[in-house]
Amino acid sequence: MRVPVPVILTAVALLACRAGPVLDTQTFDLKYLRGEEAAELIGPYVYGDRRDAKGVFGVGEKTITVRETRDNLDKIARVLAQYDRPRPLVRLTFHLIQADGAATTDQAIADVEATLRKLFRFRGYRLVAEGIFSAAEGGEVSQAMGGAVITAQILRVAGRADSATMELVVHLRGRAVEFKTRVGIPAGKTAVLGNVGQDPRGTLILTVHPELISASP
């Protein structure tokens, strides 16, 4: 019995649809990203809800193994090549400044005093404490400063060199002060974060000056 050619082609097409796409498996070695971070980046390219031949991935500390179509594996390789790079390193200089009724001027904060006088109405300003530390993008550092502890998280660094902008979360806490804020600051600029509280020395104001030490190539 001869089966018409259109019927054969239709049957082949139906079988192909049921089989789903052809999947390959590839393991990607990570140099700077952690496995969990890479998983967030590649998620859009792994189709775990595909009816036939679902995409899957497994995460290690410095590897990620993906089973997907060759086209999607190539896309994943390009994404990882873009993001698996050294993280920008940032230096943060914090100043804790006393503001009171005395008409004093402190050369240590000359770069920001004019801004302080625009924002506040105190007669004098002087530096109480300075904190300088460095961390990579995504990192968090803490140190004692002026009888309190200051913690900074560097959430994100966007741009390069002098055009870079840092997104930070800053938390200052101690017996007399408690202050927390999230802010974006251009590299090389000094930002007045705000009035952080009172202590016997007077009103305390916190500033930060971020600098980009090194950037990803």
Short description:
22% of the residues lie in helices and 45% in strands. It has 217 residues and is an alpha+beta fold.
Describe it for me?
By secondary structure, the protein is α+β, with helices and mostly antiparallel strands. The model is unreliable at 5-16 (pLDDT under 50). The protein folds into 2 domains: 21-83, Ribosomal Protein S8, Chain: A, domain 1, CATH 3.30.1370; 89-214, no CATH class. The chain has helices at 5-19, 35-42, 70-83, 110-119, and strands at 24-29, 56-59, 63-68, 89-100, 124-136, 140-145, 148-158, 165-173, 178-186, 191-199, 202-214. β2 (56-59) and β3 form a beta hairpin. Strands 5-4-11-10 form a 4-stranded antiparallel β-sheet, covered by helices on one side. A 4-stranded antiparallel β-sheet has the order 6-7-8-9, with no helix packed on it. The protein is built from 4 helices and 11 strands; from the N terminus they run αβαββαβαβββββββ. Helices cover 22% and strands 45% of the residues.
